[in-house]
Amino acid sequence: MNERFFLLPVEKQQAIINAGYQVFSQNSYKNSPMSEIADAAGISKSLLFHYFHNKKELYLFLWDTCAEMTIDYLTEYGCYEQKDFFESMERGMKAKMEIIRLYPHMANFTLRAFYEKDPEICAAVQESYHKYFDLKADRALLNMSPEQFVPGLDVSMMYREMYWASEGYLWEMVQRGDVDIDQMEKDFNKLINFWKAFIFKGSETIWT
């Protein structure tokens, strides 16, 4: 990757990143031409290749940017500082909604990338996914006090199940072609309250 990309104004970087997310989120890796990404970004194809040597490099850059940006926003919103698990989740939800507002095609891109089977990028995406997921899980659980949960709960497994459920919800929204941020926030709040009713001490009062 050409470091000159990072010398561009932030707005221009964001336009190129958004264009990449848009095109890759609508097609498979193989069927996403660099020319279409360049058009969406408002630059020439040759200039896009000046910043990224090939399509694989751009694709993996977009994937890593998503992962790193998510961790940065979760940190900024104080998610990793919370001892209350659900306070951390609620802050995390707000952080991710803010990312989606800035990069509306990112969620669709990450879901398609996760299930992408093209041998050129599949292994690299999966390796990166496990690295970033383990990092997020470790940081999320670092300050969690086990006393807040019902006795005997496997907190690590609980975190993974909630993550999978959230990803499944996003996948359903993307497949319907209806990524409504306000509705997503309402639905995630319902999910959080639902989970509280089963795993949080004293949560039986939620439904009364």
Any overview of this molecule?
This protein has 208 residues and is mostly helical. The chain has a domain of 145 residues: Tetracycline Repressor, domain 2 (Orthogonal Bundle). α2 crosses α3, α4 packs across α5 and α4 runs parallel beside α7. The N and C termini lie far apart (57 Å). 21% of the residues are buried.
Examine the coordinates and then state which fold CATH places here, giving the name of the CATH topology of one domain: Tetracycline Repressor, domain 2
Kindly provide the radius of gyration, computed on alpha-carbon positions and rounded to a whole number of angstroms: 19 Å
Distance between the termini: 57 Å
Q: Specify the helix fraction band.
A: 55-70%
Q: Strand percentage, roughly? A: under 5%
Instruction: Please report the first level of CATH classification, the CATH class of one domain.
Output: Mainly Alpha
How many beta strands in the DSSP annotation? 0
Unreliable segments of 5+ consecutive residues: 204-208
Average residue-wise pLDDT:
82
CATH architecture type of one domain: Orthogonal Bundle
Could you say which overall geometry the principal axes of the C-alpha atoms support? elongated
Helical segment tally? 9
Structural class comes to mainly alpha
Could you give a short account of the major beta sheet? none
| Helix/strand order | HHHHHHHHH
Task: Fill in the keyword field for this structure.
208 residues; mainly alpha; Tetracycline Repressor, domain 2; 9 helices; disordered C terminus
Short description:
With 208 residues, the protein is mostly helical.
What's the arrangement of secondary structure elements?
Blueprint (H helix, E strand, L loop, with lengths): L9 H17 L7 H8 L3 H7 L3 H22 L8 H18 L3 H10 L6 H20 L13 H22 L4 H19 L9
Helix pairs in contact: 1-2, 1-6, 2-3, 4-5, 4-7, 5-9
